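> forwarded from #structure-qc
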C-alpha cells in the first residue's frame, strides 16, 4: 500500500452546491471561481463537472486559464487580475479569455494595443475594498474611451468586490452596493458584485452575474455558520490512516517539543498527514480527528508528515484504520477556526493525491 494521505473530491456534492447557487440567484448568470486550482480541489476536474451548468469560470491568470483550455474547457474564462504586462495580450486573445481591467496602466495599454480580434473586458470598480479597481469617478470616462476602441469587444461589463459581506450586520456592503449600482445605472452596463457571501446573505448584490467560490466547495462564507446551515455539502474529504500505534507511559511527551504530556499510560496513534500535506501546523492539541468514525483529539505538535492522536477511546484501533481530517462529518471550517485561519486557506494548501 502507498502512503494513505488522500483528498477525496465529491463531484455530486459540488454539483449540488452549484444548484444551491442557482436557487439563491435564479435570474443571474454564474461565474464559478476556480482560481488556485479550484481552491485546492483540482481545477480541471471541477471545471469539467460544472461546465455544462454555469456560464463562465474565473481564475487568477493566463496560466490557470490555459491549463483549462488545454483540458478542453471551452466556456468563457475570466482572468480576475487581468494581464500583468502587454506581451500577454496576444495569447489571452488567442485563447479567447476575458480580462478584468483594474488599473490605469492596463487601461492605457488597451487604448493603443493592436489585437487580432477584440478582447472582452470587465472594468473593475473600487467601491471601498481598496484592493483592485479603478476609482468610481474615473469609470464613466474610461468606459466611454474603451467603447470607442476597436480592440475592445462589446459589451464592456462592470465588476466590483465586496469586502465585508461575510458579516451580515456590516453596512459596508450597502455602501459598496450603492456606489456600484449608481454606476451600473449610469452606464446601463452588465454587472457583477456578489461572491458567495453576497449570494447567500445579500440578495440586493446579485446583479447580472454572481461569482460563487467557496460555497461551491461546500464551505460557508460566514464565520458563524457551518455549511449545512447554508444548505451546502462539503466537497473535499481529507483522509489518511493510522501508521503506528504504541502504548506510551504516563509522563512522557509526544512529538516535537514534547508539548503534550501523557496524563496516564495510554494508546497513542500516528497518522500519516502533516503540514506538508496541507494539514495546518497551528492545529492545537484537542483538535478533533475522526478515527474509525469516532472523534479523537490531536495531541502534540503537527509534524511535516505526521500527527499524533489520543487513542484512549479506541483500544481496538489497528494500523491501517481510516482517519478523516476534515469532510462531511468534520467541517473544515471547524479545523480552520481552531487553527486560527479560514477554510479557504486550508483548502488551497492541500497537497496530497486527489481522487474524484
Ligand atoms: C475568489 C473571488 C470570488 C469568490 O469568492 P468566494 O468568497 O470564494 O465566494 C469572487 N470574486 C472575486 C473577484 C474573487 O477573487
Amino acid at each position: 500500500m502507498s502512503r494513505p494521505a488522500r483528498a477525496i473530491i465529491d463531484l455530486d456534492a459540488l454539483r449540488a452546491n452549484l444548484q444551491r447557487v442557482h436557487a439563491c440567484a435564479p435570474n443571474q448568470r454564474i461565474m464559478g471561481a476556480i482560481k488556485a486550482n479550484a481552491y485546492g480541489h483540482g481545477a480541471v476536474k471541477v471545471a469539467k463537472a460544472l461546465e455544462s451548468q454555469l456560464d463562465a469560470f474565473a481564475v487568477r491568470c493566463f496560466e490557470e486559464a490555459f491549463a483549462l483550455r488545454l483540458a478542453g474547457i471551452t466556456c468563457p474564462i475570466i482572468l480576475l487580475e487581468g494581464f500583468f504586462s502587454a506581451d500577454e495580450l496576444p495569447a489571452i486573445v488567442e485563447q479567447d479569455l476575458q480580462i478584468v481591467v483594474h488599473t490605469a496602466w492596463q487601461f492605457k495599454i488597451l487604448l493603443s494595443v493592436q489585437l487580432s480580434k477584440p478582447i472582452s473586458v470587465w472594468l473593475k470598480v473600487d467601491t471601498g475594498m481598496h484592493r483592485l479597481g479603478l476609482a468610481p469617478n474615473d469609470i464613466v470616462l474610461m468606459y466611454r474611451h474603451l467603447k470607442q476602441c476597436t480592440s475592445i469587444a462589446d459589451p464592456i461589463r462592470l465588476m466590483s468586490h465586496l469586502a465585508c459581506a461575510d458579516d451580515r450586520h456590516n453596512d459596508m456592503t450597502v455602501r459598496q452596493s450603492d456606489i456600484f449600482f449608481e454606476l451600473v445605472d449610469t452606464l446601463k452596463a452588465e454587472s457583477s458584485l456578489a461572491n458567495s457571501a453576497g449570494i447567500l446573505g445579500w440578495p440586493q448584490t446579485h446583479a447580472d452575474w454572481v461569482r460563487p467560490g467557496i460555497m461551491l466547495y461546500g464551505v460557508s462564507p460566514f464565520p458563524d455558520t457551518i455549511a449545512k446551515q447554508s444548505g451546502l455539502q462539503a466537497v473535499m474529504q481529507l483522509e489518511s490512516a493510522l501508521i503506528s500505534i504504541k502504548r506510551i507511559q504516563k509522563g512522557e511527551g509526544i512529538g516535537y517539543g514534547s508539548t503534550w504530556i501523557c496524563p496516564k499510560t495510554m494508546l497513542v496513534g500516528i497518522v500519516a498527514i502533516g503540514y506538508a500535506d496541507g494539514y495546518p501546523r497551528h492545529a492545537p492539541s484537542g483538535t478533533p480527528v475522526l478515527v474509525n468514525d469516532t472523534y479523537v483529539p490531536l495531541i502534540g505538535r503537527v509534524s511535516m508528515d505526521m500527527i499524533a492522536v489520543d487513542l484512549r477511546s479506541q483500544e481496538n484501533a489497528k494500523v491501517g484504520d481510516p482517519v478523516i481530517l476534515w469532510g462531511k462529518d468534520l467541517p473544515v471550517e471547524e479545523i480552520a477556526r481552531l487553527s486560527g485561519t479560514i477554510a479557504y486557506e486550508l483548502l488551497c494548501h492541500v497537497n496530497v493525491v486527489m481522487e474524484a
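QC bot note: Residues 33, 35, 80, 161, 195-196, 211-215, 221 surround pyridoxal-5'-phosphate (CB under 6 Å). The two ends are 19 Å apart (CA to CA).
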